[in-house]
# Entry
Amino acid sequence: MANNIFALNRRTLLRAGAALPLAGMLPQLARAEGPIKTAAIYTVPVEQQWVSRIHKAATTAKERGDIEYVFSEKVSNTDYERVMREYCEAGHQLIVGEAFAVEDAARAVAKDYPDRAFLIGSSFKPDAAANPNFAVFDNYIQDASYLSGIVAGAMTKSGKIGMVGGYPIPEVNRLMNAFMAGVKETRKDASFLVAFIGSWFDPPKAKETALAQIDAGADLLYAERFGVSDAAKEKGVLAVGNVIDTQADYPDTVVASALWHFEPTLDAAIAAIKGGAFKADDYGQYSFMGKGGCSLAPLGTFDSKVPGDVKKLVAEKEAAIKAGSFTVAIDDNEPKSS
# Structure
């Protein structure tokens, strides 16, 4: 009971002081001795593609001595708010996570803890008036996805490409659409079989869906989810990876991968906290190729198999993207089979 009263009194005081400018609160974090106490909350296993990149960046920052880092994985949506509050009560200064299914709850927690910094994956924009300490990020890796599509278009023989995603939400849609646009650069008559499995982590279901697409004539698969490359390997067709590079596990299958690098996003947040300048901001820009937030993985085992003119085109497009003279469209509409 005593702990509950303490928590209630603390939140009451924080709400009373919520009108104070956050800039007056966060410099406390900057002056704290030692690394920033950081906690991450993940709804899926830490090895899942998207989360693994956040975990990798946080581990790197921990090894540099910039942060202390703890995390919880496989947290259910119904438990997410509770875990957030527990980390806040434990004194963690930076809370990292994804709020795609618990947006309202996550923002409510941030309002109750104005002296904490929240860096949260979200489909929505920051709201400085309501949550001055709640910054958002997203994996805007459409640049790298577009380049992987250029390679895929050159490697498909049938011109029919299967695409298996988790859910048709903006974070997935924009990558698929960019990939499809890249494919059209080198295979204008390409067609696509698009399917969503309704899960962020169900490799067997993703594999089953991919096998059906292969049976329907696809000879190259876009592996937005784990399990797709297993189907490609089993049937002897090619695959293109997403977010992480799995070619080491599928050396004869994964021809290219669009990589997400969370380091620029996290490093920008760390710098803002240390400088007492963390605020409700949109960190999505740090996933762009021009900011170092994404890249096309080395072709590796397929380097000699991808035509030279295609590699040249990829290099030219990459240079143009980084220079700002070419922009990959951000299309969040649900992709359709064609």
Residues 2-137 form a domain with the Rossmann fold fold (CATH 3.40.50.2300).
